[in-house]
């Protein structure tokens, strides 16, 4: 049976890439290592931020290291308003008179 190759990576580098991206929504993201994978842990305000964190780490290591994205999306009313804008809370009445 061939020996498995272990890819070396620095968790500090992965964490720095996420931190230096400058998105407030990524502040709660941390990186861990488990069985040769980078595991993303924490919470983010949207599925976009979840995917962004994963993409940043994959690009950092040129996709050579598997990423296990365990980030939890915790969308609140304030983050919904940031994402879709005010007035888009599901109401069909825009508040304008015709």
Keywords:
98 residues; alpha/beta; Histidine-containing Protein, Chain: A; 3-stranded mixed β-sheet; two-stranded parallel sheet; 5 strands; globular; disordered N terminus
Could you explain the architecture of this structure?
This protein is an alpha/beta fold. The chain has one domain: Histidine-containing Protein, Chain: A (2-Layer Sandwich), CATH 3.30.1340. The chain has helices at residues 11-20, 47-60, 77-84; strands spanning 30-34, 37-41, 43-44, 67-69, 72-73. Strands 1-2-4 form a three-stranded mixed β-sheet, with helices on one face. It has a two-stranded parallel ribbon with strand order 3-5. It is globular.
**How is the biggest beta sheet arranged?**
3 strands, mixed
Q: Low-confidence stretches at least 5 residues in length (pLDDT < 50)?
A: 1-6, 88-98
Average residue pLDDT: 78
CATH architecture: 2-Layer Sandwich
Shape: globular
Structure annotation, total helices: 3
Tell me the radius of gyration.
18 Å
Structural class assignment: alpha/beta
CATH topology, which one? Histidine-containing Protein, Chain: A
In terms of DSSP E residues, the strand content is 15-25%
As for the number of domains, it is: 1
* N-end to C-end Cα span: 75 Å
Total E-strand runs = 5
Fraction of residues in H or I helices: 25-40%
Could you state the order of secondary-structure elements as H and E? Answer: HEEEHEEH
């Amino acid at each position: 049976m061939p020996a498995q190759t272990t890819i070396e990576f620095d968790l500090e580098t992965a964490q720095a890439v996420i931190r230096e991206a400058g998105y407030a929504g990524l502040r709660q993201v941390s990186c861990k290592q488990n069985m040769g994978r980078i595991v993303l842990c924490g919470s983010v305000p949207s599925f976009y931020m979840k995917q962004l964190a994963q993409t940043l780490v994959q690009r950092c290591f040129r996709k050579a290291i598997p990423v296990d994205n365990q980030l939890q999306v915790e969308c609140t009313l304030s983050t919904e308003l940031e994402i879709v804008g005010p007035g888009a809370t599901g109401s069909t009445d825009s508040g304008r008179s015709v």
